[in-house]
Amino acid sequence: MIIEKEGFLLVDIKVIPKSSVNKIEIKEDQIRLKVTAPPVAGEANAAVIDFLSKKLSVPKKDISIQRGQNSRVKMICIKGLKKEAFYAAV
Predict the structure, then answer these.
(1) Which of 72, 28, 27, 32 lies closest to 51 in space, CA to CA?
(2) pLDDT given for residue 28 in this prediction
(3) For the chain, how many structural domains are there in total?
(4) Buried b (16+ CB within 10 A) or exposed e, 71-84
(5) 3-state class of 21 per DSSP?
(6) CA 17, 84, 64: angle at the middle one, nearest 5?
(7) Is residue 72 within 8 Å of 14, Cβ to Cβ?
(8) 26/39 Cα distance (integer angstroms)
(9) CA torsion, ordered 81, 86, 88, 90, to nearest 10 deg
């Protein structure tokens, strides 16, 4: 689910840590992000922000985890990005 607000996006993402590659997939209206980092000491969360920053060409400071810091399902806030730009980048 993606919600576009004035000036930012809220994106629900299912994170799959300890994958063989970093990649993003959209399957059956669910966004899945595979990261190689393990879910230990915030490493997977940092990998999510780093990956999205590079993939979407958005500074890391404009990406934050709003909900689900200790869960595989996270709500990510991305400032300054439109819904169309998100889908075009992934």
Answers:
(1) 32
(2) 80
(3) 1
(4) eeebbbbbeebeee
(5) coil
(6) 40
(7) yes
(8) 21
(9) 140
CATH number at residue 20: 3.30.1200.10
Cα–Cα distance measured from residue 77 to residue 41, given in angstroms and rounded to the nearest whole number: 21
Backbone angles phi, psi at 79, to 5 degrees: -80, 145
Collect all residues with Cβ–Cβ distance below 8 Å to 24 and sequence separation of at least 6.
31, 32, 33, 34, 51, 55, 90
Distances (CA, A) of 66 to 19, 21, 27, 52, 73: 23, 25, 22, 15, 11
What is the spatial distance between Cα 16 and Cα 36, in angstroms, rounded to a whole number?
Answer: 8
pLDDT tens, residue by residue, 25-74: 988 889 999 999 998 888 999 999 999 999 999 999 999 999 999 999 99
Could you list the residue range(s) of the whole structural domain that residue 85 is in? Answer: 2-89
Place of tokens 């993939």: 55
Dihedral angle, C-alpha 50, 51, 52, 53, nearest 10 °: 50
